Amino acid sequence: MKILKKAKFIIFIILLLPFAVPFTGWQILYEQTSLFQVLDLNKESSIFLFVEPYLISIFTYLDWYFIFLTIYSTVIGVFGFWVQKLPRIDGWLSIPPPKKCNNFVLLMCAHNEDSVIRNSLEQMMKTNYPHKHLRIVVVCDNCEDNTFQEACKVAKLYPGIIVVLERKNKELRGKPYAVKFGLEWINHNLPNYDALSIADADNVYDRDFFDVMNYKINNGSEIIQGYLGVKNPYDSFVSASGMYTYCVLARFFFAARQNLGMSTTLGGTGFVITKKAIDELKWDMKSLVEDFEFSTKAVIHGKKIDFAYDAITYDEKPTELQASIRQRSRWQKGHWNVAFRMTPRLIAAMIFRPTKIHWPSAIDYFLYLWSPGRILLYIWFLLTFILILYLDLAGSEEYLGFFVLDWEIRFFIIILPRILEYIFAVMEGFDQRKILSVFYYYTVFFVGWIPGSIIGLFTWPFQGNWDKTAHKVKFSLEKETDL
């Protein structure tokens, strides 16, 4: 009964807001009055007559803004049909001998990860990159299990390469603080490193990851995001939806912008930043999405973020919807924080330092900063599509004047990017046998973005501490190579 009451309340709010007529939703739900009867009863009211022109203007603005965003992202996304791959012979990376082997430091942050940290470190050490040019620093942040002990077991096998640190601070806990702690230690003890990579405790890098990143750095890139893969793609519909999203992002977002010479963005893990870029920009992040905050800071200072299609990171995705929603809500809260804090700085850079920024990237980031709002806008567009279709089929043309677009056009605008996403997912190897089920469940998965978008909008100043996502999947690079 409680769920039914909550559902009725949500429907009531949805019905009440578009028409701005008191008791409309209540009349429909509890007095069993039809939608048209309610509209007829209220259309002559003073309130309705007063708000009608404003509603039409607002609806028109929302429609055209959504169409602009859809066309903009789809046109850019088309350029994702091509990816910049490095040459391979029989599956092996085939690039010229490097001009320089840069010294990499991999920073891994872990909180209660004793089930995966050992596996992750063992797989990381299977890299093809020379070990003498690689250091791995593990920060065990407020761990209450055996994470520190498990990491130390692997570190003993690779003395001088893997360093395990322990951090205790119950007040300031979570990845942002762990990264800051690790960076301070690295700058003090490993000052001669050339580039830094940040990964989560469950992540595994492909064998060629550092070779590809080294190639990119030697060719002028300062900030590079690698390809995001999934360790457990088909464990549940939630992880399959995450896999589907990563497949789409690889081309629709990352590769497309790379091909257009625009900046991409950092994706939370599997990225590399040169020491030069860190020294210039400083790592003083204040949000729950430190990767996106750093990306925005880089664009404000005129730097571009490159994409390395061949540098793969295998990431574990949640298998339960509740865990996935909690994770994405954290991202949305952090994203809103960055949007409100960094947008004025981006605009200021565009006005006062117009020659110092890359304009296509700056404009793209201005739109991307407010993408949590785009999710809510998408829900609006979808609901109005359903409403207009209902009004049209019922023959009530009288009320269609509220909307500038017919339901046929709305359907086309909604479905066009989805077709492109489907093509990209298949091109990236998503199991076509899973496509139909993912189409069904992806709707449920998408709805999971809504709570974070709404809650984050009102709570963005209060970032709080990092809520950990549980990990348990072990991964083998040999198995991935065999596939």
Q: Averaged pLDDT, please?
A: 85
Can you tell me the number of structural domains? 2
Shape: globular
The largest beta-sheet arranges its strands as: 5-4-3-6-9-8-10-7
- Topology, number of strands: 10
CATH topology of the largest domain: Spore Coat Polysaccharide Biosynthesis Protein SpsA, Chain A
Note the gap between the termini.
Answer: 48 Å
Q: Helix content range of the residues, please?
A: 55-70%
CATH architecture of the largest domain: Alpha-Beta Complex
Q: Segments where pLDDT lies below 50 for 5+ residues?
A: 8-33
Structural class: alpha/beta
What is the helix tally? 18
What oligomeric state do the depicted chains represent? single chain
Largest sheet, in brief, is: 8 strands, mixed
Estimate what percentage of residues fall within beta strands.
Answer: 5-15%
- What is the CATH class name of the largest domain? Alpha Beta
Name given to the CATH homologous superfamily of the largest domain: Spore Coat Polysaccharide Biosynthesis Protein SpsA, Chain A
Report the radius of gyration as a whole number of Å. 25 Å
Helix and strand succession?
HHHHEEEHEHEHEEHEHEHHEHHHHHHH
